[in-house]
Amino acid sequence: MRRWVRMPSDPLRAGATVAGLLGLAIAGYLTVVHYAGGTPACGIAHGCATVQASDWATLAGVPVAVLGVLGYLAIVALLWIPSESARMAGCVLAIGGFGFSAYLTYRELFDIHAICQWCVASAVLMTALAALCVTRTLRAPAVFTD
Prior knowledge:
Blueprint (H helix, E strand, L loop, with lengths): L10 H26 L11 H5 L5 E2 L2 E2 H16 L4 H29 L4 H23 L7
Helix pairs in contact: 1-3, 1-5, 3-4, 4-5
């Protein structure tokens, strides 16, 4: 008979999971649009096509949206692995994602001169995800081994 281990309630992990899954949905949508050769729906800022066609939409030939899918997926997976090292790895990835989002936002504002609402939403979600992961890591009980 299989016994399920119930993990303790963790509202920070729950919030981070929601932010990560929403970010994953946005990055997934942008990835599908990229490979379908379309233009993202852009109702507010009307700059999505400009951003998508820019030099900063890919990194070493890989669409930035694909990097977002991989990053969000890794962070969400690490949130559910019950170990201190997984918590720390998720925190490091989320901080890196926050930095990369800030860099891309800078490029939108000062080089591309266009704003993509999907990119802004992803940057906001990554910021929240980083804040939640850092708070969760700092609040975790210290584990000492002799």
